[in-house]
Predict the structure.
Amino acid sequence: MLKNISKLLTGDLLKILCDMGHGDELVIADANFPAETVGRRVIRCPGMDGGELLAAILPLFPLDTYTERPAALMDLTDGDKAKGMLEPAIWAAYAALLEAAGERPDFERMERYAFYERARRAYAVVQTGEERQYGNLLLVRGSCRACAARIGQPRAAVLAHYQLDLPTKTNAAGS
């Protein structure tokens, strides 16, 4: 067990999140998404919906501030729009979670096959048990702003920010 990390995040998923770099993309996919067809790396989280997974990931995953829209949704098909399908409720849930995490909930909306093509290039696809239609979300990873802002600060200031009390050379020997 790790402290302060959601129990929903598996070791495999934590490794994926850790290995991702600035500009890498992560797809949170619904249960019907062709994850094995399009994903280079696929992690399965069938016991949770997309919102639960997004809520667990966001504290660890900064969105890219250099990308105009670092979150993208698979848009409704023209056929579903013609039938008068309303905007999926999962989109509002994703927006609320992003906003609560201090991120901009300004989504890029992508045509279905364009979304699949972009997902092919994503670092990983995490397939959830999300059963609501159009529950697919693509996130662009940014850099850790908290870490970047502390580069060059004295060690004590960094430790204080993270509320760490690590031994120094002076007190490590017991003095």
